[in-house]
From TrEMBL:
Pfam families: Glyco_hydro_77 (PF02446). This is 4-alpha-glucanotransferase. Belongs to the disproportionating enzyme family. It catalyses: Transfers a segment of a (1->4)-alpha-D-glucan to a new position in an acceptor, which may be glucose or a (1->4)-alpha-D-glucan. GO terms for biological process: carbohydrate metabolic process. Its EC number is 2.4.1.25. It comes from Pseudoalteromonas phenolica. It is an enzyme of class 2 (transferase). The keyword Electron transport does not apply. GO terms for molecular function: 4-alpha-glucanotransferase activity. The gene is malQ. The keyword Glycosyltransferase applies. Keywords: Carbohydrate metabolism, Glycosyltransferase, Transferase.
């Protein structure tokens, strides 16, 4: 390994990867140089490369402790690094938070690593701490040879907060697609309460939501919840104005509320959301809501708002002096908390499951307020695969693998905490990002990319710690190519995976036997990136893509012939005599989900779109303006969707319990 390759290794810049074809692809020097440039790393001379390697490789061994020390909750050991000639010394450890002062003999430590530089042998020792510390982050100081050093002790559990052992059933839904008389053209937290009550009456244990992240008030057409302005803040459009009118401080806006509903009456009957009209109308009411709060809220309500701003000052700092925006966050958080409380009161085991998007938009608040954490001109994407031979660029800025550790990973801690509060579980989109991400950038003006690796041990520790601190279980969306070390670590950490029926196939192309599904995962027939089952069975997605000219060079009849093979495989997999290739989508769906319900996964999620027998997808991956992504409504009333499936849902619950 030469000096440049060492620098790439130390900075996490990958050397190679295995393509979906099984071929090993090595990244060119130019590609790896571009990745370093994106991190603003100056490697213009051998001297600078040597200096960087020294800082990243040697210097950490010359400090007795690192800025962060990860301790196991059950068997805490402190890692220290010393020159081996100092093995006879003692250190003094002080944790003021708990009034703890210990003297530890270095000679009692167990050697866990070594490094030799310029004839000096450095060793890493694990010093056993005979004490019990609570899960969390605790400041500590160490005295060694007359000098003082500080470290943040991360007391981490072996596992994230566990799910209940019983098999559980629930829904996955895009909240904005819900329809009701009182909403403003997109589903809101009032509609979520209606869905919660209806779901609870069907004995559901959870509702998985789309990311609720803050989008762009002044650019309502940017509707994707997966390209947000800020992942720690909530989209104010989810606030239920109707719920607010029930409070005394806001009762005077009821007439404005009724007028707004009349303005949107025709728009709400359309299949696709007109975000321009909906957003303009609703933000007008949200602004009025704030004005009424300033004029009519009593002292106690005002005090609660100020307290919220104080407690969440770090998160809200990106809003600067915009009190109105902070007020919307307060109201949204109160309504969301009320929804989770309703879930638990209604008997749900988990309640709401949040979804954390893999990144944020480069012109959004999250990026602008944390710009130092991100790279220059490198964006998140995916390497070539059978569905995208040229790879994918998702257009989201990449986090710098070194700068993310600033202030003891404060940015990542705050992000995870904000997305766990008020939820029973958190789904992490593209969970592989805590280990590695595919970066997209240009090399000699041509698109290129490579894998870049992140501080996996630290990011995983934050997930597990925050999981316990916020009483929130974890699901990692691990669809696609997943490094084996990630799969193993998630399994050992009790972080569930995410299984999609369509993707569970054997080498022959047949669907895997249901008994081969893993236990610790959330099983879904479909999600937001695949068409609803009715559309899939009836070829509606193929016809839609053909009308939109998205089938590239593929003939429609060829695509339908390929789909016919898949349909036959579904019939064979279900293996029920009462359905056949010519059966209706509704009939096949019923038997398919009943069969899936009997498989091993502990969590089974039904897509609300499938239960409502939707024919339009909510999203077509790889498109932007070609299709109205993130806008398609479910026009049926919420109660009607679940009540018409009452018998099926009851049978699914019985099957789940019987096969538990």
């Amino acid at each position: 390994m030469n000096a440049f390759e060492q620098l790439c290794y130390l900075y996490g810049i990958g050397a190679e990867f295995t393509k979906y074809t099984g071929e090993t692809v090595r990244f060119s020097k130019e590609t790896r140089e571009s990745a370093l440039k994106a991190c603003n790393v100056d490697f213009s001379s051998d001297q600078k490369i040597s200096s960087l390697n020294y800082q990243l490789d040697v210097k950490p061994w010359q400090s007795i402790v690192q800025e962060v020390s990860i301790l196991n909750e059950i068997d805490p050991c402190l890692a220290v690094r010393i020159a081996d000639v100092d093995i006879s010394f003692f250190i003094q450890l002080q944790i003021k938070e708990f009034d703890i002062a210990l003297e530890l003999s270095l000679s009692d430590g167990e050697i866990s690593g070594e490094y030799i530089d310029d004839s000096v042998r450095y060793i890493e020792l694990q010093l056993k701490l005979n004490l019990t510390l609570p899960i969390g982050y605790h400041n500590a100081s160490i005295q060694f040879k007359g000098n003082y050093f500080s470290t943040e002790l991360w007391v981490s559990p072996d596992k994230a907060r566990s799910f209940n052992d019983a098999k559980q059933t629930g829904l996955n839904v895009q909240l904005y697609t819900l329809s009701s008389e009182q909403n403003y053209g997109i589903g809101d937290f009032g509609d979520l309460k209606t869905l919660i009550k209806s779901s609870a009456s069907s004995d559901f244990d959870f509702i998985l939501l789309n990311p609720l992240h803050l989008l762009f008030e002044n650019e309502p057409q940017r509707a994707s919840p997966y390209s947000p302005s800020h992942r720690g803040l909530i989209n104010p459009l989810y606030i239920s104005i109707f719920e607010c009118t029930k409070q005394a401080a806001f009762s005077k806006i009821n007439s404005e509320h009724i007028s707004a509903l009349e303005i949107l009456k025709q728009e709400k009957q359309q299949q696709f959301i007109n975000y321009q009209l909906v957003s303009e109308t609703k933000y007008k009411l949200l602004k009025s809501l704030y004005r009424h709060f300033k004029h009519y809220a009593d002292a106690e309500l005002q005090r609660k708002f100020r307290l919220y701003c104080q407690v969440n000052s770090n998160l809200l700092s990106c809003l600067k002096d915009d009190e109105r925006a902070k007020f919307w966050q307060w109201v949204a958080n109160m309504q969301l908390a009320s929804c989770q409380q309703l879930c638990l009161q209604s008997g749900m085991i988990i309640g709401l499951i949040n979804d954390l998007a893999v990144g944020c938009a480069k012109d959004g608040l999250e990026y602008k307020s944390n710009e130092g954490m991100f790279t220059q001109d490198a964006e998140i994407g995916a390497p070539p695969d059978p569905w995208a031979e040229a790879g994918q660029n998702w257009g989201l800025p990449s986090l710098d693998p070194k700068k993310i550790s600033k202030d003891n990973f404060a940015y990542f801690k705050h992000l995870i905490k904000a997305n766990m509060q008020k939820f029973g579980a958190l789904r992490i989109d593209h969970v592989m990002n805590i280990r590695r991400l595919w970066w997209c950038f240009k090399v000699n003006e041509s698109p290129s990319g490579c894998y870049v690796y992140y501080p996996f041990e630290h990011l995983l520790a934050v997930l597990k710690i925050e999981s316990h601190l916020n009483n929130c279980s974890l699901i990692g969306e691990d669809l696609g190519v997943v490094p084996p070390e990630v799969t193993l670590a998630l399994e050992q950490s009790d972080i569930y995976g995410n299984t999609l029926f369509y993707f569970e196939k054997s080498c022959s192309g047949d669907f895997k036997h249901g008994n081969d599904y893993r236990n610790s995962c959330m099983l879904m027939l479909s999600n937001h990136d695949v068409p609803p089952f009715k559309a899939w069975w009836n070829y509606d997605d193929i016809e839609l893509k053909n009308r939109l000219k998205l089938n590239e060079n593929n003939d429609v009849n060829t695509l339908k012939s390929e789909r016919n093979i898949e349909k036959h495989r579904v019939i064979e997999w279900v293996n029920k005599s009462n359905i056949s290739f010519n059966s209706s989508a509704e009939k096949v769906y019923i038997e398919l989900v009943k069969t899936l319900a009997q498989t091993p996964p502990k969590l089974f999620s039904l897509n609300y779109d499938d239960l409502a027998f939707q024919t339009f997808p909510v999203n077509i991956p790889g498109t932007n303006t070609e299709y109205s992504n993130w806008r398609r409504r479910v026009l049926s009333p919420i109660d009607a969707v679940l009540s018409q499936q009452k018998d099926l849902l009851s049978e699914i619950n019985d099957l789940r319990k019987y096969n538990d």
